[in-house]
């Protein structure tokens, strides 16, 4: 049996682990920045079984990860990937603030009260922003 295809494929494992590790670090950084930027405490609300907070935060995480995945595909270097990951953080935080300023000014208070509609709408805004951000990065 010829093991060459397998060994050739596994030769890229260190490179893969570096990129995945960096992506996980960027996602953790994003989550920390986002939680500082919002007017509500996502983790405390989620621990208290607040579905609105869970939906909004989950949408935000997916909305961030979509452009991060595109950045990974299109970045030639780790530095370029990190820069685009930083851009995606700024975009997602801006989405929250624009949503809060233009659509539902008391969205955080509504999420704290467990109003699922507000959590779904904020999560959807984050997803939509992430899709557009990802598409723009792919150009």
How is the biggest beta sheet arranged?
A: none
Q: Regions with pLDDT < 50 over 5+ consecutive residues?
A: none
Number of helices: 7
Structural class: mainly alpha
Radius of gyration: 18 Å
Count of domain modules: 1
Percent of residues in helices: over 70%
General shape: elongated
Order of helices and strands: HHHHHHH
What does this structure look like?
- The structure is a single chain.
- This protein is 83% helix and 0% strand.
- The protein has 139 residues and is mainly α.
- It has one domain (17-137).
- The model has no long low-confidence stretch (mean pLDDT 95).
Descriptive labels:
139 residues; 7 helices
Task: Give the helix/strand layout.
Layout: H1 4-10, H2 13-37, H3 42-47, H4 51-74, H5 78-102, H6 107-112, H7 116-137
Helix pairs in contact: 2-4, 2-5, 4-5, 4-7, 5-7
What's this model, at a glance?
The chain has 139 residues and is an all-alpha fold. It is 83% helix and 0% strand.
């Amino acid at each position: 049996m010829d093991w060459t295809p397998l060994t050739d494929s596994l030769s890229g494992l260190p490179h893969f682990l570096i990129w995945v590790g960096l992506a996980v670090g960027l996602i953790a950084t994003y989550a920390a920045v986002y939680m500082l930027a919002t007017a509500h405490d996502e983790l405390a609300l989620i621990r208290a079984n607040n579905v609105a907070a869970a939906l909004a935060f989950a949408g935000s995480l997916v909305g961030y990860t979509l452009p991060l995945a595109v950045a990974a595909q299109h970045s030639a270097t780790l530095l370029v990937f990190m820069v685009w990951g930083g851009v995606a953080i700024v975009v997602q935080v801006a989405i929250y603030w624009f949503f809060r300023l233009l659509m539902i000014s008391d969205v955080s208070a509504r999420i704290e009260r467990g109003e699922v509609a507000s959590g779904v709408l904020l999560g959807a805004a984050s997803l939509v922003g992430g899709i557009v951000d990802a598409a723009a990065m792919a150009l």
